[in-house]
Amino acid sequence: RIYHPGETMYSYLPGNGENFGWIDIQSTPYLARGAKSGITGMINLHLLAGPESTPIPPRLWDFLIGYQRRGDFSELLSYDLATSIGVFSDFEDSAKDGIRFPSHAVGMFHFNPDLDFVFGADYIDRDDLPLLPVFGFSIHRQDQPNLRFDLVFPRPRIDVVLDCKRRMYLAAFLDGGSWDIERPDESNDVMTYRDYRAVLGFEYTDQTDGISAVELGYVFERQLLFRTIHTVTDFDDAFVLRFVWRR
After folding, report:
1. Could you say which of 8, 86, 113, 233 is the most buried, measured as most Cβ atoms within 10 Å of its Cβ?
2. Which of 150, 152, 196 is nearest to 174 (CA)?
3. How far is CA 188 from CA 53, 84, 91, in A?
4. Residue 245, CB-side half-sphere exposure with 13 Å CA sphere
5. In this structure, are residues 177 and 195 in contact, taking their beta carbons and an 8 Å threshold?
6. Is the domain 7-246 a CATH 1.10.4100 member?
7. What φ, ψ does residue 91 adopt, rounded to 5°?
């Protein structure tokens, strides 16, 4: 019944020179798992290393505030709605092209106790991919409580319960974003970085029902794009290490 849980994370994608390293200190603008509605927000910092051949800022910021609501229309149908306004920029000059409105509208049809269908749209408001469809299904058989399959685009995940406190999972997702930046000649541009990530994670649930996780991931299809330059810069595949706290 939750499309996006609230998360705080630290991720490290090593790189230097032309390999383009990336460090994230960030959170997601979503409610904790038990919350039904409320104001959301985030302040994120991204630290960049390289590439030397393409001048880009050493740091990027995200500031966002929004509202999210979750609920049930009936026993068979529930929903998760969120809307927000944010500024994504290096803040070296005007950030007007970094104003964006990420939102989502997702419904869940609970076909039976073992199967849910998920459908909707995720408006991520990026230059490369403004809108993503949300579709798929979730299998959580009562006769196999140690397995869960959330085969939902764009964030599929498979869980294996190890014991009452620990889980292992495989997940995949799109990463990156679009930011308003200032170039070395003081002209404005919009930079978009995109990659795809497949991660193996281990979760632990503490006594307060908080979840902490460590993930090791493979990052591929790494691309850097600019609004004013009609070329795409590709980077080698890489590994990423993430520490995640889920509310």
Report:
1. 86
2. 196
3. 18, 24, 11
4. 8
5. no
6. no
7. 55, 30
Residues 6 or more apart from 51 whose CB is under 8 A from it? Answer: 17, 18, 19, 20, 224, 233, 235
pLDDT at site 76: 95
| Predicted confidence (pLDDT) per residue in 85-131, tens digit | 999 999 987 788 999 999 999 999 999 999 999 999 999 999 999 99
Q: Which residues on adjacent β-strands are paired with residue 68?
A: 38, 82
Residue 14 has what DSSP assignment? -
Distance between alpha carbon 212 and the CA centroid of its chain, in Å? 16
Per-residue CA distances from 98 to 64, 102, 183 (Å) = 11, 12, 14
Stated length of the chain = 247
At 51-69, the pLDDT tens digits run 878 888 999 999 999 999 9
Both tokens of 168, joined, read 């292992």
Name beta bridge partners: 123: 103, 131
Q: Which residues of the chain have pLDDT under 70?
A: 1
pLDDT at 1: 64
Would you list the domain boundaries of the chain? Answer: 7-246
Q: What is the pLDDT of residue 229?
A: 86
